[in-house]
Design goal:
By secondary structure, this protein is of the alpha+beta class. The protein has 6 domains: 100 residues, no CATH class; 64 residues, Nucleic acid-binding proteins (OB fold (Dihydrolipoamide Acetyltransferase, E2P), Beta Barrel), CATH 2.40.50; 70 residues, Nucleic acid-binding proteins (OB fold (Dihydrolipoamide Acetyltransferase, E2P), Beta Barrel), CATH 2.40.50; 76 residues, Nucleic acid-binding proteins (OB fold (Dihydrolipoamide Acetyltransferase, E2P)); 71 residues, Nucleic acid-binding proteins (OB fold (Dihydrolipoamide Acetyltransferase, E2P)); 80 residues, Beta Barrel (OB fold (Dihydrolipoamide Acetyltransferase, E2P)), CATH 2.40.50. 24% of the residues lie in helices and 32% in strands. It contains 11 helices and 30 strands. It has a 5-stranded mixed beta barrel. A 5-stranded antiparallel sheet has the order 8-7-6-9-10. A 5-stranded mixed barrel has the order 11-12-13-15-14. Helix 1 packs across helix 2 and helix 2 packs across helix 4. The longest helix is centred in the last third of the chain and has 48 residues. 19% of the residues are buried.
Length: 648
């Protein structure tokens, strides 16, 4: 029977005429031991089929009964050598069978195959090629339950190895398919599932179709994430937002899916917004300037000034993250993208609840909540503040900083000076709680009286001295010292020093005191006016060379100026710094405290004395010579008279 089946198959092959231009020529392959076994199986199967045939009038060929096995048993070698095994009328049918049953074994094509056998190391995969392929079991580690009959995707890795075996790759096929699916998800915007594997710098690593994708921390949720580890090991939905084909990088986002849902909710909420509307929200973020509240897809800002009627330093004093609270819509822009919310507005304004019994002149107690340069704000009731101006903190007319009087948190008592309920303003005063020290100022500090005061402040023109709390006086810079030339008060005294002063002037209405310090001592210039009178001589050294002359100090108080021409010595050379000499006072002005001295006047005066003495001596000599001449004249006259007598 087997011989008869073979003869029938050979006869059918001989009746077919070859058409090489139309037939597709498959790749040539070497016959392996497995193929030989398959050929024997085909023959045995064919023999069984012939024996089981019950209708001898119509003999069924192997090609008709089992085309797949027929094609595997087909002698391609004879076909390539020019022996046409197919009839002319059967050529198109043959080509159709080849196209339907044989796969095109291209290197980069992923095909589906069936697991036909599993060994200890490999899996045999039937991909409807001329021979079955082999895939290492290592590539199925993710699928330990692989069994015969499973459908798997493979890529032809090596068409035929040295033994003629077709080598397949399931791993490469999965990678190619995974990239195809990732690209499709990116292009079409479809949602994919991913497994969060672990944390990494700046985000998470997610397994998507077997590809490791990066999930940035900012793309996990619309809310800031404080603990990334809670997401590790979870399977979540993602959207592929970016692919870098050059570096094979994939970026996914879970936030994008949330935002899409939120956007729908946002449109619905924004369309219903109205001023004064009260909504429930969740605290999403806290900053130094306010609180962001999630209204269910739309964020609004509660500014720090709208959190409480009382003054606060930071919003976290009122709210905390994830806290649910009711807020009122205060305002929003035309596009409703910026929503201003309020929390304190849900309660009545404290000023409205302020008792009517409070009036100007009443005493109140409160806590210092804010200090400014111009004063301090005191909270006398929750949400009700009054301002104590620095001028109302002390009776002193010399204004200082509010920090010199109070500190934040201090409990103080004050008097209500003004009260405006409509404008919700109140001014307070502390000094009004004590008596005005200027009431009997003329008795305590009459003009000419001497007192001790504390230096409190400097100005360019003088020193402010505090005689007592609320009583300040000014010492002009010219009244600090009789003798010293002071450019700034800090050269003479320091803040906090105690000075003895005398009251020079008192202005009760203007609340001004004029004080003097130098007047507490005798004016030394009264004494110096005689001691350093013009013409007096004193010995001193040149202490400093200045423009147009030099400076000498006769004592701690008297400093004199020596013009350059008056520095000349007897030898014609000028005095130099440090050189000691005798000087004569040539000018003394008590009012302007001006003293001018000269060294040249000393030796010029000596010269003048010498000249004067010489002149005097010469005059005396002349006087002595006068009698001798007189006698001569007398004798001449006598002689003349005698001569005249003889003539007579």
């Amino acid at each position: 029977m087997a011989d008869k089946a073979k003869e029938t198959a050979v006869e059918e092959k001989k009746t077919a005429k070859p058409k090489r231009a139309a037939a597709k020529k498959p790749a040539k392959a070497k016959a392996s031991a497995k193929e030989e076994k398959a050929a024997v199986a085909v023959e045995e199967n064919a023999e069984v089929q012939v024996e089981e045939t019950t209708k001898p009038q119509k003999e069924v060929s192997l090609k008709e009964s089992n085309p797949e096995k027929f094609l595997k048993d087909f002698n391609w070698h004879n076909y390539e050598e020019g022996i046409d095994p197919i009839d002319d009328g059967k050529l198109e049918e043959f080509e159709k069978l080849v196209a339907e049953n044989f796969v095109d074994t291209l290197d980069d094509e992923v095909v589906e195959g069936e697991v036909v056998h599993i060994s200890d190391r490999d899996a045999i995969i039937d991909i409807n090629a001329k021979s079955e392929g082999v895939v290492s079991l290592n590539e199925f580690r993710y699928n330990p339950d692989l069994k015969v009959g499973d459908k798997v995707e493979v890529l032809i890795d090596v068409r035929e190895d040295s033994t003629g075996q077709l080598i397949l790759s399931h791993r490469k096929a999965r990678t190619i398919k995974a990239w195809d699916r990732v690209n499709a998800a990116h292009d079409e915007g479809t949602i994919v599932n991913g497994y969060v594997k672990c944390r990494t710098k700046g985000g998470m690593i997610v397994d998507v179709f077997g590809i490791e994708a990066f999930l940035p921390g900012s793309q996990i949720d619309v809310k800031p994430i404080r603990d990334y580890d809670v997401y590790v090991g979870k399977t979540m939905e993602f959207k592929v937002v970016k692919i870098n084909h050059e570096f094979k990088n994939v970026v996914v986002s879970h936030k994008a899916l949330i935002e899409a849902d939120i956007e729908e909710q946002k449109k619905e909420i924004i369309g219903q917004l109205e001023k004064g509307q009260v909504l429930e929200g969740v605290v999403k973020n806290i900053t130094s300037y306010g609180v962001f509240v999630d209204l269910g897809g739309v964020d609004g800002l509660v500014h720090i000034t709208d959190l409480s009627w009382s003054r606060i330093n930071h919003p976290n004093e009122i709210v905390e993250l994830d806290q649910k609270l009711n807020v009122v819509i205060l305002d929003f822009d035309e596009d409703k993208t910026r929503i201003q919310l309020g929390l304190k507005q849900l309660n009545a304004h404290p000023w409205d609840a302020l008792g009517e019994e409070l009036k100007v002149g009443d005493k109140v107690k409160g806590k210092v909540v804010v200090i400014a340069d111009y004063g301090a704000f005191i909270e006398v009731a929750e949400g009700v503040e009054g301002l104590i101006h620095v001028s109302e903190m002390s009776w002193s007319t010399h204004l200082r900083s509010a920090q010199d009087f109070v500190n934040v948190g201090d409990e103080v008592e004050a008097q209500v000076l003004t009260l405006d309920r409509e404008e919700r303003k109140m001014s307070l005063g502390i000094k009004q709680l004590s008596a005005d020290p200027w009431t009997d100022i003329t008795k305590k500090y009459p003009v000419g009286s001497t007192h001790n005061g504390i230096v409190r402040n400097f100005t360019n023109f003088g020193v402010f001295v505090e005689l007592e709390e609320g009583i300040d006086g000014l010492i002009y810079i010219s009244d600090l010292s009789w003798t010293k030339k002071i450019k700034h008060p800090s050269e003479f005294t320091n803040i906090g020093d105690t000075l003895e002063v005398i009251v020079l002037e008192l202005d009760v209405e203007g609340r001004k005191l004029s004080l003097g310090h130098k007047q507490t001592t005798e004016n030394p210039w009264d004494k110096y006016e005689k001691e350093f009178a013009v013409g007096t001589k004193h010995t001193a050294a040149i202490t400093e060379m200045v423009d147009k002359g030099a400076v000498i100090n006769f004592n701690d108080d008297i400093t004199a100026f020596v013009p350059t021409r008056h520095l000349e010595k007897e030898d014609g050379v000028n005095l130099k710094k440090g050189e000691e000499a005798e000087f004569q006072i040539i000018e003394f002005n008590k009012e302007f405290k001006k003293v001018v001295a000269s060294h040249m006047a000393i030796h010029k005066e000596e010269e003048a004395k010498i000249v004067k003495a010489a002149v005097k001596k010469q005059a005396a000599a002349a006087d002595e010579a006068k009698p001798t001449l007189g006698d001569a004249n007398a004798k001449l006259q006598e002689l003349k008279d005698k001569m005249d007598g003889k003539k007579k």
